[in-house]
Amino acid sequence: MKPSRKKPLFPVVRQFADYLVKYDRMSSLPVRYEDLLHYTEATPLLDQNGNDTLWETVFYSDIETRELNKSLTKIYALLKTDGDVQVIEHLQVARIDYCTFGNSKPFRVRIINKLNDNYDHFYVKKADASRIYGLELEELLSPNHVMFLVDGDTLIEEHIAGIPGDEFMNKNLQIDNFNKIRIAKEFVKFNERCFVRLLGDMRSYNFVVDITPDIEGNQYRIRAIDFDQQSYEGRKSFYLPQYFRENNPIIFLGIERMSDETVKQYQFEERSLIAVRVKSSWNRFSELTDIMVTDQISTSRKVIQLKKELAYHHKNNTFLNCQNMGEIVLTNILLLLKKDFTQSINFK
Fold this sequence. Notes:
The chain is of the alpha+beta class and 348 residues long. It folds into 2 domains: 14-158, no CATH class; 163-337. 40% of the residues lie in helices and 18% in strands. It is built from 10 helices and 10 strands. The chain has helices spanning 14-22, 62-81, 129-141, 165-171, 177-197, 248-257, 260-280, 282-292, 300-314, 325-337; strands at residues 41-46, 52-59, 91-99, 107-113, 119-126, 148-151, 154-158, 163-164, 207-213, 218-224. The chain has a 7-stranded antiparallel sheet. It has a 3-stranded antiparallel sheet with strand order 8-9-10. A hairpin with a 5-residue loop joins β4 and β5 (119-126). The two termini are 19 Å apart.
């Protein structure tokens, strides 16, 4: 299952920009996305096994390299230390990579600490309103904190650490039964989070698995890392990670290890947690959705398709009155608050 076609970028309207300013998401950046396009050379970036990663390492002239080092380390300070420039003297840009695969065509900046050779990354992307709505909803409705900055047509996103989902499935599923159940449980909860807030295209390479050692075994959390498909597509199944064949290894793990009643229990638990998060951030959530319901972040055809499919799924015709994707997202979440939300799907 793939997106119907390449998704367009949606502009950040003034009302949304004001919201981003209020919540410290807007910042005057020393480098814009377009500035990074002025590279002079590019070479394919290979992984440890010599395979093409679909990224290119890009190079700039000596003058631009010096300017970019100064500006990009400052952006890193804005992301990580609220702009405290004292850390900059120990930081250096180690590498800049560019990916032409995907809508945002991101640049990935590797920052290295000269004192201990420790490194971190952040991303420079084209600003897109629907992606930014997705990032904000992740902050408000998920257990995860996410840091990003916007300046005009430029979006800066922090790197989200974890093992890429496809790599995790290839290398980390041969474990004991106890941890297999924990992984299956987390996928059910992740599946539910995506469906409630309508985050689409969560195939294995668009999420990571964060592993935390615990007293007995490990704890697992699946985190989305790509928010490009926040409430854009018209197919309901597009918002359910379980429908992507790339996720089959974890899906089959759940089918093997969990009963229907167990799946329902975990779905209910996650919906309850989302409801708590909405209530605890109600003012900010209301401000965001008030803007979202007036914004245009999809096409009329997709809006009509999705509201019909969700009306059928929930057996609730309220969706048929929705005029845009923002209203559909809000209706979906309000159903959850009313405890009238139909479980995402039966895994078996």
